[in-house]
Batch of 2 targets.
Target 1
Amino acid sequence: MPMAIKILSDEVASQIAAGEVVERPASVVKELIENALDAGAREIEIQVKGAGKGLIEVSDNGAGISREDLSLTTVRHATSKLSTADELFKVSTLGFRGEALSSIGSVSQMRITSRRKEDEVGGALRVEGGEAGEVQPVGGPSGTVVRVENLFYNVPARLKFLKTDRTERRHIDRVVTNYALAYPEVRFQLRHGSQTSMQTSGAGDLREVLAVIYGVDTAKQMIAVVAEENDMGIEGFISPPDKTRSNRREMKFFVNRRPVKDIALNKALTQGYHTMLMKGRFPIAVLFLDVEPERVDVNVHPAKAEVRFRNKGEIFKGVSKAVRRALLANTPVPEVGKPWGRNLWGGRGAERREVDQTIDPAWRMSAEVDKADLAGSGKGSDQGAASLKTPILRLIGQVAATYLIAEGPDGLYLIDQHAAHERVLFEKFLKERGDTIHSQRLLDSVQVEFPPATADLLEEKLSLLNGLGFKVEAFGPHTFVLRAIPSLLGDVSPAEALRSVVQELEVDESPLAEKIEQKIIARVCKRAAVKAGQVLSSTEQKALLRDLEACESPRTCPHGRPTMIHLPVDLLERRFGRKGPL
């Protein structure tokens, strides 16, 4: 039987609205920072306890709120930032809906204290579960302090959907990081309990903020982007092609200084790096787009993280051109030579395509990826895996300082030396893991800095890394000291090895599991393996070939890429016309 239609109470309606604006503690931090910035604050302090569930306090030295207006701050859709619908299409402030404080107050115990510079006495307003008290006169410095306690205390179901405290702290760190980048002239301080997680000087130097977040070395290497495209200003910094990440998390965009997420902007950025990035790698970028407010709609989603551009194609082209121009101006262009080492038959592209279309089925089969290898087990899951073992091979030599050529009983084998060495190291690592992984102690310990959110994640996974041959200890705010690395990484920069492993942790933040361990081991092996372009002696070539033959799954690297290509004798005979035309 259908239920009768009822009008929801103001309390329920407020909590429903709060669900759109206040998703998690980081949402509260975001809204309060935006209010402080809109008020012209030059100093913003954020104090967090209990990952934001216990306390979030944001203090600023902005313009403040009069006692007369303080009671309106928690009334839904009460705002000083716009008054007509037309103004929605030329919004220049971060906030404009008048929903934030009302939504936050409906699911917490909140106290707002504020004083304008011209007022002798300020005011204080307490709100509990959406019920506001009377404004009380108080003294204090000019500016505003919003104290939010016991978030979601009256909506316990919402608390159950929050992640672990570490994860929620990381979300808060990322929010503060975004606004610190967008407003380098504002001094930010973030404290989790008694520990300062991040602090900027407010000197207005974006590269200085980059150094706080990503470390001094990375900040120095970042490439400046300054361009004017299609009546749009584009400024910021991008990383050189060799300074990348395994995910898109560090690709940050700001439209009129508002942090935004946009798939098209991500594609435009990576398009600018066309042919310069390895597959699965992504640049670090902090790019600011200065667009006429009428050309961008920020009223798309309650969180205001998504925008809609009027001329999306022009924006895409502008970003891509600006990035490409900056890269070409700051990255040496490699000299192009004849690809003599990479075209086995010396033919042109059309001839290679003809051969590709007539590849013998046995050749195709030899390059297929064992599903068990993709799972990282290092062993085949069925009897068919045995067919992927290699026969005994006779080394012929090295070509283009990248591939080994070997002869087998059934034809030629082309072996990618980097992928092959990855597989060899990976299986050695897995065997050592059963006992104790050998570590190599560093003569001089190395200090490595990470962004606040990354540092928190690394601290959580220290026992895992230490069990894999690293010896890492926390050493001050988001800084770690590295004392030893796995012996397999003897020739690799210790700091770069640790950063590379941490990137794998950022991709998969699931609980400790064998899968994560194997992903990390695969990452370590990738760093340690010989590289393409590295000339190997005859002894080294033979040793690599013998080690690969001894592997359980020699046909693929730990990431599933083929280590070798098989050219059967039958294919060679047909290619030379000994068995009829192709």
Target 2
Amino acid sequence: MTKQEARLKAKALVAKMTAEEKMSQLLYNSPAIERLGIKEHNWWNEGSHGVARAGTATVFPHAIAMAATFDPELINTVADVISTEGRAKYNKHVEYNDFDIFKGLTFWAPNINIFRDPRWGRGQETFGEDPFLTASLGIAFVKGIQGEGEFLKAAACSKHFAGHSGPENERHGFDAKISEHDLFETYLPAFEKTVKSGVIGVMGAYNRTNGEPCCAHSYLMEDILRKRWNFDGYFVSDCGALNDIYEHHKYAETKAEAAAVALKRGCDLNCGQTYAYLIDAYEQDLITEEEITTAAERVYTIRFLLGEFEKNRPYSDIPYSALDCKAHRALNLKTAEQCPVLLKNDAFLPLDKNTDKRIAIVGPNAQSVTALEGNYNGYASEYVTIADGVRRVFTNADISVERGCNYCHENTNDWSGFANMISDGVAAASEADITVLALGLDCSIEGEDTGFDNDYTAGGDKKTLYLPATQQKLAEAVCDACDNVVVVLMCGSSVDVGEKVRNHAKAIIHAWYPGALGGLAVANILSGKANPCGKLPVTIYSGNHKLPDFKDYSMQGKTYRYIEGDALYPFGYGLSYTSYAYADAKVKIENDDALTVSVDVANTGKTDGKEIVQIYASFTDSRTYTPHYQLCAVKSVNLKAGEKVTVELNVDKYWLKAVDENGERITPDGKITLYIGGHQPDNVSNALLGYACEKIEL
């Protein structure tokens, strides 16, 4: 069914509704209209890394972990599985007349906000700090969710539009002040690219941006989204965001006025209950029936595109047995093996899987299922923690496990004289030949608007880039007790384990929130069964790095593109068990819109591996300020030991433009230089990986 056909069907059906019935359909929990044969419909579903909150589903690595693959094709495949499992659930829910929340086909994902500041608690839900990477993975995810068939397989939704990335505890009333330059260079490109690639939904943010609430924003919603980008899908508020318009933003005096201004500016659907006051707004002549009709037609266009009203419903042959099935678990493990980033390796890894040495797994994430899941998660049929994975892979080893401490609160177990568990963790490490330190956070520590503050976080946002103090104490004590320490960090952001631990550890792996089978994936990397290939989608800062004010939305001093000083581990960085060499980079084809770059890539080591080829652009003598470097192309290549191939990458010239103070993309006045390699061309990356990128001057 084409969009035009769906629109015509929607128009015809909506025309049969009364004004009150149309308004009722603009709430996320839309009631049935029995006289028209319309069943109740709940729009709210989540699926950022698996069908969430509705029973069994494959729990893939969280979005920030998948971003570390730098692999749009893989993310597209994962998203296709998510929509397959969504259809499997939906087919049975319809059969059993279950139209409850989290049961439908409108997934409010992906989150394509820019992870502009490492303290933000929701950064784990994003594809990282870079506009190009976020746009590329966002497009791949959207296409995987929506499918290529006659009907939408499921509906994707790019969120949160726009300028949303903390602070969490102020998001309902916060005003993000963003220049036109930063808006169009950093915050909007991923939205523009996913909209122009066909995403069917866009969700507005809680906050204001430059004075106007994001779910009632004349400039963002009307001028940019609808007029400039020609978006013809549906716009939904974040949950409760319309309530914020009058209660926290004080942008409207009543609920009816809040509902009216949101509807007039193009918010078609309300996640929340403020649109229950559309009737008051209508009776007060704050809105017209034509405006109500337009919104109703948009939301019903989506329902027709999903095939809800078809006699033979599309994708109805997908069985319930598809959920977390053998094939999907295999893809999950494959994905999880490609997400971890090897930050350090003193020629210590991989370990011999047949070793009979004593291995201690110590730390609060040693046996944590929550740290596998991240947030916005489903419930897998099987979980493999770090301890479980090490037991499965190192079957001859003598393995002990100790939690060693809590995530943050050292005295949680303070009763009968028992104040902490650090001595137990140190005891296990002291008798071990190798200690795996399973450190990090979970979504109760860094997360979405947690509603509480402690020494480490404020509303889910971190106050420091170091580990929580109790974990730091454990880690340092373990390093004193055991010579051979491997640190495995499970968290969704930049965390520094401190100089003492960094220097002592033989290896450090950033494993993110790696999904249900994440512990097995990490163990496979420890043993060498899997060769690490993940690259950092965010900058890892030193814990004492001076960051700008968290509330300052200017990009100056933020992310690899505008960092002041050096990163601890830079964006785009990641080690492997093999080595790669680059040569003979050149522009092969060029036209007005794009150019093709070719480069020879060789695996110069003794291990097969997957390399992420990256191209960065830099600008000199521009009339406007520009990033140090801007990622503009990526491509994955699998290479056998000793193999050399020529890789071609397409560079969209959109990413070779400078953005002026008015937000316009312009051809830079000066020189454009392209850098091609397995990392960005900064001095820290060059030193850590031991080679400089190939260079082309355009």
